[in-house]
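agent: user wants the structure for NTF2-related export protein from Drechslerella dactyloides. delegating to structure tool.
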Amino acid sequence: MQALAKLSRLAVIRLRRYPPPSSGLDLARTGMTTSVTHVCWERPTSLHTFESSHTQGGDAIIQKLTELPFAKAQHVINTTDAQPGPDGSIQVLVTGYIKLDDDAAQIFAESFQLKPDGGSYYIAHNIFKLIFPPPNP
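agent: tool returned. relaying tokens verbatim.
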């Protein structure tokens, strides 16, 4: 659970805040408003990519998140967009700024594919990427 408090917690934080009014996704129709706190990494088929490093399976993902080389993360969410899938899944894209420990804030993008499971969702796919400015010519 420490890993969830460290980085996976981002998913829950972002989902609680999403969608912004302009996204047009009807969360009441998808059931997300009642299920958001039950999003988890419990499937052996769940895939997580953090800065081009791929991990599969709930236990391996939790271990990877626990071993990340920072103690705290602060976020400013700029945009959150979501699209419902034909199978009841939800694709979410989040952009914003992240500040790790005492480092300068960096731009990030993160994508989640949430799959329905009874009355909740699980994270089937997740990609997190820091966005670096282009080098000066």
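agent: one observation worth passing along. Confidence is low (pLDDT under 50) at residues 1-38.
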